[in-house]
Amino acid sequence: MQWKQMPLGPLQTNCYILWNTTNDCLVIDPGGEGEKLIQWLENHSLSPLAILLTHAHFDHIGAVDQMRDHFSIPVYVHEKEAQWLLDPSLNGSQLFMMGELIRLKPADYILTNEKNLKIGDFQLQLFETPGHSPGSISYYVQECGIVLAGDTLFMGSIGRSDLPGGNQKELLASIHDKLLTLPEDTTVLPGHGPETSIEAEMDSNPFLNGF
Q1: How far is the C-alpha of 60 from the C-alpha of 32, rounded, in Å?
Q2: Each residue of 98-122: pLDDT tens digit?
Q3: What letter does residue 195 receive in the DSSP assignment?
Q4: How many domains does the chain have?
Q5: At residue 135, does pLDDT exceed 80?
Q6: Residues with Cβ < 8 Å from 117, sequence gap 6 or more?
Q7: How many Å apart are CA 104 and CA 85, to the nearest integer?
Q8: Could you list the residue range(s) of the whole structural domain that residue 104 is in?
Q9: Global pTM?
Q10: Res 34 pLDDT > 80
Q11: Is 17 exposed, middle or buried (0-12, 13-18, 19+ CB in 10 A)?
């Protein structure tokens, strides 16, 4: 399995594409610039099976409907943020986008609990990692040793918890109880910035001192 990081949208949010030997792929957090993303997928002859969201803030969902309509694929989101797709006051676009409100169609699949998620030949382990937002999810792909952590954990930092529904104590517990229990050589693919590893963040992340 291969993956690509593609920063997109107003905050250069990391969209990730995972694909396998049959050229099926998953798209995680298409935050904007839908035409650019569609063109890249078609240039590489990749066939998306689904859109997975780590959470539903505006900078992670901007190209969702464009992707969904173009490829006729379903969207997955956590139940606690299902309404965020429809409501600019919840997804943050009303506050941050200066008039560019994001109102999407409802998600096709509502994720409710931690589970193993199978989409085509892809196997992902779903972790509930709230704190940055109440419905934040991390997706662990054991086969290739990666965790798609959204805005929970970054290189040398952690997600902000001062937005509506955020909670720093919950965020630190999510990182400690879910992410730091993964193998230390697991690659962390964050929602913004460069990739890192569980080992590197355990050793040097100043926000995790004391864990």
Answers
A1: 8
A2: 568 999 999 999 999 999 999 999 9
A3: -
A4: 1
A5: yes
A6: 76, 111, 123, 124, 125, 126, 139
A7: 5
A8: 2-208
A9: 0.96
A10: yes
A11: buried
